[in-house]
Amino acid sequence: MTESRATKWIGMPVERLEDPPLVTGRGRFAGDINFPRQLHMRMVRSNHAHGRIVSIDASEARAIPGVVAVWTAHDIADIGPIDFREGSIEKLAPYRQPVLATEKVRYVGDPVAAVFAEDPYIAEDAAELVAVEIEPLPPLLDARAEPGEFSPGKNTEAAYLTQGYGDVESVFATAHTIVELDLTSGRHSGVPLETRGALGRYDASRDVLELHGASKVPHRNKELIARMLGRPPSSVSCFESHVGGGFGIRGEIYPEDILVCVAAMRLDRPVKWIEDRREHLIAANHSRNQHHKVRAACTEQGEILALDDVIHHDNGAYVRTHATRVAMMTCGVLPGPYRVPGAYRAVCHFRLTNKTPAATYRAPGRFETTFVRERLVDAIAHKLSLDPMDVRRINAVRVDEMPFKRPLEALGEEIHFDSGDYHKLLDKLLDFVKWDELNAELAKRRENGEMVGAGLAMFVEKAGLGPVDGVRIQVDTSGYVEVITGGSSIGQGFETVMAQVAAETLGADYKKMRVIRGNTERIEHGIGAHASRATVMTASATREAALKVREKALSVAAELLQAPADALDIVDGEVVRRDNPGGPSISLGKIAAALSNTSKSLGERDPGLSADGFFHAEHQVYPYGNHLAVVKVDPATGGVAVERYIVAYDIGRAINPMLVKGQIAGGFAQGLGGALYEEFTYNANGDPLAVTFADYLLPTVKEICDIEILLTEDHPSPLNPLGIKGAGESGVNGVGGAIASAIDNAIGIPGAITQLPVTPQRLKAILDGKR
Amino acid sequence: MLAAAMKPAPFQYHAPRTVEEAVALLAEYASDDGRVLAGGQSLVPTMAFRLARPSHLIDINGVAGLDRLDAQDGRLFVGATVRHAAFEQPAVEGPLGVLLSEVAQHVAHHPIRTRGTFCGSIAHADPASEWCAVAACLDAEMMAISTRGVRLISAPDYFKGLMTTALEDDELLAEVRLPMLKPDVRFGFSEFSRRSGDFAIAMAVVVYRLQDDGVIAESRIAVGGAEASPRRIVEAEYALKGRQPSPDAFMLAAEIAAKKVDPLDDENISAGYRRDLVLALTRRALEQARDRAMP
């Protein structure tokens, strides 16, 4: 294929196709969507962490002019609890969240009633008048405490999960050194600037129930809604809008999504719900709260022979759509890049507490385990007086061991590292920062009284969850190309990346690609945007479809140009002869016209310059990286300033390096939040204390240092034709681990940091020896 | 049930044009939850949460004459509608203007500073308000107007506790008067907040002069954020009297300040941590004043 400059798009940092409407105020977010005659929904939520519902009196609320209905659980008794995304799981079914609380409330924010009114002000006024009497019960707020009763006969340990291999006890019995740590990852979550929003609309003319607003996994949501409401899936449609951030938490099916759907049908009017910020912070999924009692059995040289981890996972009040995914992932990915040849055991007490339910947040199970694992590596190095980098080197899987299989699972698949050279990337990073010089300089500053230090975290990501993705590509008669995907854009640049792959494969301008996503009426399959899968899966499928379209275009052009197909190329949307690119040509638009259903030149062919392409993933792919932090601690206040932050990451192949770097930078900002700022705290009654942006501290531009990114493409994945490995979660994965390590180094107390986030108050207590 | 809302409860809106009209409206509606609206940067969010639900809002933004910001007879007069942003550049000559401009950088973020008002902060009396700490440090006078008359309240009499002041419900805080500072007055301001622009957990404002013989005179040390109200810590000020601006003297004054405060203790921030911060910040403010280049 001629590599003409104009059709070379893969690997180019081209500008985003998504931006023009977004930067000119013409985006269409959930709040921008309106339908004639729509009602506004307002939730009435529990203000008790745990209690028995004695009575709910909505008579006063119903009497307000403009209130159309007030529903409690009785009004929707035929609708079951929010089901799991992947289908029913019998053992966990009793722990699902009812759409509206039935007998008990289990967290502050638990929906107990829904008000439907002519405008949102009336809905809020009326919601205040719904009198809910609750008999308080003692709240359970610590996953390490003795489990309590969830419901009669069911205790709050909803699941006990385990993964492992080998004989752990015997390896520990004979090990040279055992290192044991007690570590906690705080409760925080993805907090998109656009809160959730949902519009339900029943189109009686077509007998189709529509949900607008929810993003991330539209096709999965369609199936789930159909299942819960007993409708044929073909009569449910989901449409995503623009999205102000997703991060794994937005776009799952929550009680409010089901309520707007049910209400749209039963009240026979469209129903709109826009979450407010306070609601978001108590109602949308939380994440990350785990306690790890972990120990490693090592050789004298620091080689980790065995790991043994007892995890208490605080999942909040219910088991939501993700079931036990985060906890199970945690059990599987803890060893990260390290070999751990002897034995491994992770057991997880998956427990419910009287807090907001928890589920996935960007790099679920990885942010937590990288913190745990890298703390452990630093502790091993300290105990054995070894260089922590040497401990990482001796343990990391070597390039000659690839592909590396480990009898543990992630997302239901056995873990197979497809490719990579962890040592090489570590060396590149340490060269990049001039590690020895950096440490010498930091040591000098410490001698002069500054508390400065550096730390590193090494990790393996996972991306490209299968099993299959399909894309339909169709060229119109003007030469514009529709790339119809079952993918989802949560702001990551999905459309641009798909356009680049389609355009390069076809031989056309990427700006002539119109990428369709988030619309279940345009394509029957789709898995959406999660698990860093979109580029690996959807772009690979895009390539398959584009190759077929290309082939069809060339075969038609061969006839029209009277030349063999293999003598032709497509450049800038024009089919030309390879040996005479300036000679006769025919455009893709003209070929599409020649293939129209009424065209005389159609002949025996199926009409349309179009094709479906599918990509079947053999397995997930495993990109990898390192985070390196340089921090300065203020000993008088316990405040931490991050002076430098460097991410080294092997992406396999970057379709658009600018967007990859954007993903990494955004992830870093969120990781920094989890490492130093963001925490959902509760008082002893189970009242949430972080309910506004004054209490839930997202780092702002002033707290986030410039990030340096060392993006490499040394090991393209052998598992897909473009060698793609996924980028979405790499920026957040190692932040907790790297910053904890750097703070230890700065304050000169190895192993000091055992809990995230490292708040100034906590660090001050450590510095004062009060902990 | 749960007071979680983003749309304010119903209220009646009034837009007086004169101080007389404003205080007449206050007299009429104060007892019926009437509240003054100036910049709205604290009141409006609390209304959105329905934590505040005034039945009447008396918007003073259109009231003539409340935007006064000028110096006269050794005082800076700050009218009720003067925005925080008016202080971003020195609003008056001498150390006071510079002090206010440096402190202004710590008041939230620029967009908020273009709406929120100096007097609004003083009336709201959040313990972590920078302007309240400055007012306490400099012994500002607050001018309250009602249909019953005009009165001046000095800072020690004015700040009464957590978001509580000596203002009566029907009184409008029309003006705050800050004493001008002599050209050789040194000042320092230091605060600690989790993020830039957040309400501080603690802060210290200090002013003093160095006499010709190099010793400290006329020192004022105020602590904000740590207690329910900002106030001067006179014992710490006394400890500096006649001392050289030495690390020992500063440490002693800071230790006294930390010892004398009775810090707030809440579920997020302990009293002990606040006390630690008072020590650190008082010392830093004193050092900053010492190290300041003087004209």
How large is the count of helical segments of chain B? 10
Average pLDDT value of chain A? 96
Order of strands across the main sheet of chain A: 3-5-1-14-11-12-13
How many strand segments of chain A? 31
CATH architecture descriptor of the largest domain in chain A: 2-Layer Sandwich
Largest interface: A-B, 44 and 30 residues
Specify the structural class of chain B: alpha+beta
**Biggest sheet of chain B, in brief?**
5 strands, antiparallel
Total count of domains of chain A: 3
Mean pLDDT of chain B: 95
Write down the domain tally of chain B.
3
In N-to-C order, the SSE pattern of chain B is EHEHEEEHHHHEEHEEEEEEEHHH
The CATH homologous superfamily name of the largest domain in chain A equals Aldehyde oxidase/xanthine dehydrogenase, molybdopterin binding domain
Shape by Cα distribution of chain B: globular
Oligomer classification: heterodimer
N→C terminal distance of chain A: 66 Å
CATH top level class name of the largest domain in chain A:
Alpha Beta
Spans where pLDDT lies below 50 across 5 or more residues of chain B = none
Ends distance of chain B: 60 Å
Structural account:
The complex is a heterodimer of chains A (771) and B (295). Chain A contains 19 helices and 31 strands. Chain A is an alpha+beta fold and 771 residues long. Chain A has three domains: 173 residues, Aldehyde oxidase/xanthine dehydrogenase, molybdopterin binding domain (Aldehyde Oxidoreductase, domain 4); 152 residues, Aldehyde oxidase/xanthine dehydrogenase, a/b hammerhead (Aldehyde Oxidoreductase, domain 3), CATH 3.90.1170; 324 residues, Aldehyde oxidase/xanthine dehydrogenase, molybdopterin binding domain (Aldehyde Oxidoreductase, domain 4, 2-Layer Sandwich). In chain A, the strands form eight sheets. In chain A, strands 3-5-1-14-11-12-13 form a seven-stranded mixed β-sheet, with helices on both faces. Chain A has a six-stranded mixed β-sheet with strand order 9-17-16-15-10-31, with helices on both faces. The longest helix of chain A is centred in the last third of the chain and has 28 residues. The radius of gyration of chain A is 27 Å and the shape is globular. Chain A starts with 18 loop residues before the first helix and ends with a helix. The N terminus of chain A is likely disordered. Chain B has 295 residues and is of the alpha+beta class. Chain B has three domains: 48 residues, Uridine Diphospho-n-acetylenolpyruvylglucosamine Reductase, domain 2; 111 residues, Uridine Diphospho-n-acetylenolpyruvylglucosamine Reductase, domain 3; 107 residues, CO dehydrogenase flavoprotein, C-terminal domain (Enolase-like, domain 1). Helix content of chain B is 32%, strand content 25%. Chain B is built from ten helices and 14 strands. In chain B, the strands form four sheets. Chain B has a five-stranded antiparallel β-sheet with strand order 4-5-10-6-7. In chain B, strands 11-12-13-14 form a four-stranded antiparallel β-sheet, with helices on both faces. A three-stranded parallel β-sheet of chain B has the order 1-3-2, covered by helices on one side. In chain B, strand 4 and strand 5 form a beta hairpin. In chain B, helix 8 packs antiparallel against helix 9 and helix 9 packs antiparallel against helix 10. The longest helix of chain B has 21 residues. Chain B is globular, with a radius of gyration of 19 Å. The model of chain B has no long low-confidence stretch (mean pLDDT 95). At the A-B interface, helix 3, helix 7 and helix 19 of A face helix 10 of B.
